[in-house]
UniProtKB/TrEMBL annotation:
It comes from Raoultella terrigena. It is a multi-pass membrane protein. It holds the Pfam family SDF. The keyword Transmembrane helix applies. Keywords: Membrane, Transmembrane, Transmembrane helix, Transport. The keyword DNA repair does not apply. This is Transporter of cystine tcyP. GO terms for molecular function: symporter activity. The chain crosses the membrane at residues 12-32. It is found in: Membrane. The gene is tcyP_2. One of its GO terms (cellular component) is membrane.
Length: 43
Protein backbone atom coordinates (compact mmCIF):
# COMPACT_ATOMS: atom_id res chain seq x y z
CA UNK A 1 0.00 0.00 0.00
CA UNK A 2 2.67 2.53 1.00
CA UNK A 3 4.80 1.48 -1.96
CA UNK A 4 2.05 2.49 -4.40
CA UNK A 5 1.46 5.81 -2.64
CA UNK A 6 5.21 6.50 -2.46
CA UNK A 7 5.75 5.78 -6.14
CA UNK A 8 2.81 7.99 -7.06
CA UNK A 9 4.19 10.80 -4.92
CA UNK A 10 7.64 10.58 -6.53
CA UNK A 11 6.14 10.55 -10.03
CA UNK A 12 4.01 13.58 -9.15
CA UNK A 13 7.09 15.45 -7.94
CA UNK A 14 8.96 14.57 -11.13
CA UNK A 15 6.08 15.79 -13.29
CA UNK A 16 6.09 19.12 -11.45
CA UNK A 17 9.81 19.72 -10.85
CA UNK A 18 11.31 18.65 -14.18
CA UNK A 19 9.42 21.19 -16.35
CA UNK A 20 10.18 23.94 -13.82
CA UNK A 21 13.91 23.19 -13.93
CA UNK A 22 13.87 23.01 -17.73
CA UNK A 23 12.00 26.31 -18.02
CA UNK A 24 14.33 28.08 -15.59
CA UNK A 25 17.41 26.88 -17.49
CA UNK A 26 15.92 28.05 -20.79
CA UNK A 27 15.02 31.38 -19.24
CA UNK A 28 18.55 31.87 -17.93
CA UNK A 29 20.10 31.03 -21.30
CA UNK A 30 17.67 33.38 -23.07
CA UNK A 31 18.72 36.24 -20.77
CA UNK A 32 22.40 35.94 -21.74
CA UNK A 33 23.58 38.76 -23.95
CA UNK A 34 26.45 36.93 -25.63
CA UNK A 35 27.66 33.36 -25.98
CA UNK A 36 30.84 33.86 -23.93
CA UNK A 37 28.77 34.18 -20.77
CA UNK A 38 27.39 30.68 -21.34
CA UNK A 39 30.89 29.21 -21.07
CA UNK A 40 31.44 30.99 -17.75
CA UNK A 41 28.25 29.50 -16.33
CA UNK A 42 28.63 25.93 -17.59
CA UNK A 43 32.34 25.38 -16.92
Amino acid sequence: MFNIVGNGYVQLLQMIVMPLVFASILSAVARLHNASQLGKISF
